[in-house]
Design brief:
The protein is mainly alpha-helical. It has one helix spanning 2-88.
């Protein structure tokens, strides 16, 4: 009886192996059918990537050019701004300009008195003298 059981299991194993072989062959056939299609898709994908890289290189080149122009303009404007500030800050105390030609009036003296909350003028309860 054990030998019948062994033969039965052996047949089942052979059937399973045949099915596996058949499935493997089907997979190979399907791969072969789609091999050309996969190859075309890979080529298209590679071409798209190449085109995107080239486009990005052009964009980076344009942006770098713009950055350079803006840096140059910024440097020029900073120099011009410094020059204008130096012109505006000149007066008779720090240049050879005579005091009569100073365009700005002298600086206002600073009042050191602290502000209070009282109203201006005479305060209530204070006797005035005239």
């Amino acid at each position: 009886m054990a030998s019948n059981y062994d033969k039965h299991i052996f047949r089942q194993l052979e059937d399973v192996l045949k099915k596996c072989d058949n499935l493997s062959q089907e997979i190979k056939d399907i791969k072969e059918e789609h091999k050309e299609e996969i190859k075309k898709l890979k080529e298209q994908h590679s071409e798209k990537i190449h085109n995107l890289k080239e486009e990005h290189k052009r964009e980076v080149k344009q942006l770098n050019s713009k950055i350079k122009k803006l840096e140059d303009e910024n440097k020029l404007l900073k120099n011009d701004n410094d020059r204008m500030k130096s012109i505006l800050n000149k007066d008779s105390s720090n240049s050879s300009i005579s005091p009569s030609k100073d365009e700005r009036s002298k600086k206002k003296e600073v009042n050191l008195r602290e502000k209070s909350n009282k109203q201006t003028g005479g305060q209530k309860g204070h006797k005035g003298s005239t």
